[in-house]
C-alpha cells in the first residue's frame, strides 16, 4: 500500500508556515523501498515547499528516515541519501544551502503503515 503524499493538505500547511507558528510545520515525502529517488508527485511537493521556504529566513531541517528491515548501516546511509536528495532539490529550487540542515535519522521502527518509515520530513523554521 502506498501512502499518499500530503499534497491535498499542502496549501494549508504551507500557508501556516508563512505565519511563523510556534511549532514548525512538517511536510513529508515518501520513498519506495531501497530508493532515494522521488516520484514526480513528491518532487512537486518539494518544489512547492521550497517556494514557501524561500520567503523566510529561518532554518530548514531535512530529516531522513528508513525502515528497520535490513542492515543498520545500509539504512543509515539510505536515510542520509534520501535527506540529501531532498536538500538538493530544495537548493535547486532556490533555498539557500546554508539554511538547510540535514538530519539522517537512520532506521526507525515501522509506523502504522510500513511505507511511512521510508520518508523525509521537511521542517521550515525548525
Automatic annotation (TrEMBL):
Per the record, its GO cellular-component terms are: cell outer membrane
Q: Which residues form the signal peptide?
A: 1-22
> Where does this protein chiefly localize?
membrane
Q: Which UniProt keywords apply?
A: Cell outer membrane, Membrane, Signal
Highest rank taxon of the organism: Bacteria
**Xref: InterPro entries:** Bact_OuterMem_StrucFunc, OMP_bac, OmpA-like, OmpA-like_sf
OmpA-like domain location: 18-126
Keyword DNA damage present in the record's keywords: the answer is no
**PROSITE patterns cross-referenced by the UniProt entry:** OMPA_2, PROKAR_LIPOPROTEIN
Where does it reside? Cell outer membrane
Q: Name one Pfam family in it.
A: OmpA
Name of the featured protein: OmpA family protein
Where does this protein come from, organism-wise? Neoroseomonas eburnea
The uppermost taxa in this organism's lineage are: Bacteria, Pseudomonadati, Pseudomonadota, Alphaproteobacteria, Acetobacterales
Amino acid at each position: 500500500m502506498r501512502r499518499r503524499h500530503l499534497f491535498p493538505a499542502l496549501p494549508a500547511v504551507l500557508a501556516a508556515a508563512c505565519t511563523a507558528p510556534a511549532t514548525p510545520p512538517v511536510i513529508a515525502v515518501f520513498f519506495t523501498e531501497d530508493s532515494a529517488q522521488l516520484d514526480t508527485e513528491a518532487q512537486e511537493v518539494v518544489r512547492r515547499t521550497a517556494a514557501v521556504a524561500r520567503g523566510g529566513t529561518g532554518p530548514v531541517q531535512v530529516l531522513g528516515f528508513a525502515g528497520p528491515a535490513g542492515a543498520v548501516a545500509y539504512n543509515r546511509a539510505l536515510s542520509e541519501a534520501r535527506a540529501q536528495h531532498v536538500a538538493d532539490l530544495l537548493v535547486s529550487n532556490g533555498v539557500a544551502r546554508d539554511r538547510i540542515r540535514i538530519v539522517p535519522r537512520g532506521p526507525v521502527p515501522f509506523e502504522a503503515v510500513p511505507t511511512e518509515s521510508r520518508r523525509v520530513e521537511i521542517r521550515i523554521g525548525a
